[in-house]
Amino acid sequence: MSILSRLFARSRKTQVTIGILGAPNAGKTTLANRISNECGNGEPLGVVSPVPHETRDCKALEHCVISDHNGSLDLTIVDTPGITTSIDYREFQQHGLSRQDSIQRAKEATRGVIKAIQSLDKMDAAIVVVDAARAPFDQINWTVIGNLEARKIPIIVAANKSDLAEADPELVKETFQSDIIPISAKDGSGMNELYGSILSVSGM
Amino acid sequence: MDLRINFVTEHTTRKMNSTQKCDYIISKLKTDCVLVFEGGLNPEEEAALIQETMTQIDHQKFLGYKILNPTPLRMSGLFNRRNLKMTVIAPHNYEHLSIALV
What we know:
Mean pLDDT of chain A: 88
Mean pLDDT of chain B: 83
Number of helices of chain A: 7
Order of helices and strands of chain A: HEHEEHHEHEHEH
Structural class of chain B: alpha+beta
CATH architecture of chain A: 3-Layer(aba) Sandwich
Low-confidence stretches of chain B: none
Number of helices of chain B: 4
Oligomer: heterodimer
Largest interface: A-B, 23 and 20 residues
Structural class of chain A: alpha/beta
Number of domains of chain A: 1
Largest sheet of chain B: 4 strands, mixed
Number of strands of chain B: 6
Strand content of chain B: 25-35%
Largest sheet of chain A: 6 strands, mixed
CATH architecture of chain B: 2-Layer Sandwich
Shape of chain A: globular
CATH topology of chain B: Translation Initiation Factor IF3
Order of helices and strands of chain B: EHHEHEEEEH
CATH class of chain A: Alpha Beta
Strand content of chain A: 15-25%
Radius of gyration of chain A: 16 Å
Number of domains of chain B: 1
CATH topology of chain A: Rossmann fold
Strand order of the largest sheet of chain B: 1-2-6-3
Distance between the termini of chain A: 13 Å
Low-confidence stretches of chain A: 1-10
Number of strands of chain A: 6
């Protein structure tokens, strides 16, 4: 267990807020929907799309209960927009959107990035979702990592899309120089390990 | 495209607060300058810069920036040794940030 995890463990909370962070199209909303479904919510938390910045507002799922032999944890899961330093509406046009729709989407995306940064203050822990089928270095947002560390918020790195043949979770581990959890939010593999890690950083 | 680089010393930024730094950086980015900051930016300043940038993206000319925090350089002098931390910030349309630093 990391130093940050041990510090967090001292609080032994039974209600925690977990933020889902990561680069656009890493699979944050797919993961949020998976957790929502497995918590018996039934309703997806957000819409999944190949067009970047589909999630442009923070969405929360409350009272998602996970447990092990040590007890239960009442989670609030916050799906956040991808945090980026630039937004180019022309990228959306490449996905078939009209110029007008692309600019509107870009405007909403800028507001979403601000909300995502502001949401860091409310997180007890963060799941950083990385697309293991893409180069991980391009997906590291050091600003986000630095801000989580500065706020002493424990970080769980989830190497998503590990079901794909081209996925390389070991490269994600080398790049982040930390423990990672290979998962597939799509088929559900690795989710038990992810829940175990959430319980661990929460001191359960 | 001509490349213009501004080297910004710690002496220049020492008396700036976070807001002033953000304003300074964004004003330079809007003139297509690449900025090299001695001492770098701390995480809170980087978060503030993102937020301010998002409010100023005009979806025409200014679309944001790219940022790079190279590994600190070990500087040796006659009387002192220190790690030189830098942050490089370039306009969004500058495609070759990492190549320029090699």
